[in-house]
């Protein structure tokens, strides 16, 4: 169980390692961790990751692996020594891929003597609408696909899924209480939505059942990121 402040992970959507390290240092102990994604990792690789990890802030490594089971297992083996707290794979890689990912994450954590990372599934990318989904040949509505893939993820040993704020209720209804919901699209009251279309405040998202809130620009683009993070934490405590 994470306490309220530990539920917040700040998305460091940058390729600049010094900037990422600086933010990680200043946010350590105030929030739960930081998220590094494809943009950062493709530019800076494991060395860049290690520089941020040296601050000892927990890291959510959001690389969204999607390949055959053997290759995804290999990718997880490759990042396991970095000991991320959370990592992501696509649920559309199928049941066997999810099971292998979970098994390998466990085996590697034992080998490296660290905690098993949470292996979290991406269901339907929020950039896809019903027309896009139909164009890829999937049938059914977006919520129906999210529910089906969420259930499949839990059945195949994933620790949780990434979901938009409007999907929290739906997934909480069908999943067990230990299944983790990682939720981006969070905007503190009064902050700009930017390109996020469906947003929710941190407090509402947690009250509805989110386990981790991914918050980027409301912290990183604030005049004082530490103050912005502290304000979000106190809003969660109210
Ligand atoms: O700046 P902002 O708070 O919008 O950042 C949200 C983070 O969550 C970004 O890293 C974005 O890529 C990620 N994300 C998202 N929506 C998803 C999945 C991930 O906003 N469905």
Strand content: 15-25%
Radius of gyration, whole Å: 17 Å
Main sheet: strand order: 1-2-3-4-5-6-7-8
- Name the poorly predicted regions: none
Mean pLDDT: 96
SS-based class: alpha/beta
Distance between the termini: 19 Å
* Main pleated sheet: 8 strands, parallel, barrel
**Cofactors, ions, other ligands:** cytidine-5'-monophosphate
Number of strands: 8
The SSE string, one letter per element, is: EHEHEHEHEHHEHEHEHH
Number of helices: 10
Fraction of residues in H or I helices? 40-55%
Instruction: Label the overall shape.
Output: globular
Task: Kindly describe this structure.
- The chain has 238 residues and is an alpha/beta fold.
- The chain has helices at 17-27, 38-53, 69-79, 95-111, 130-135, 142-155, 168-174, 202-208, 217-220, 225-237, and strands at residues 8-11, 33-37, 59-65, 86-90, 118-122, 160-162, 180-183, 212-215.
- An 8-stranded parallel beta barrel has the order 1-2-3-4-5-6-7-8, surrounded by 5 helices.
- α1 (17-27) links the parallel β1 (8-11) and β2 (33-37).
- α1 crosses α2 (38-53) and α3 (69-79) runs parallel beside α4 (95-111).
- The longest helix is centred in the middle third of the chain and has 17 residues, at 95-111.
- The radius of gyration is 17 Å and the shape is globular.
- The structure holds cytidine-5'-monophosphate.
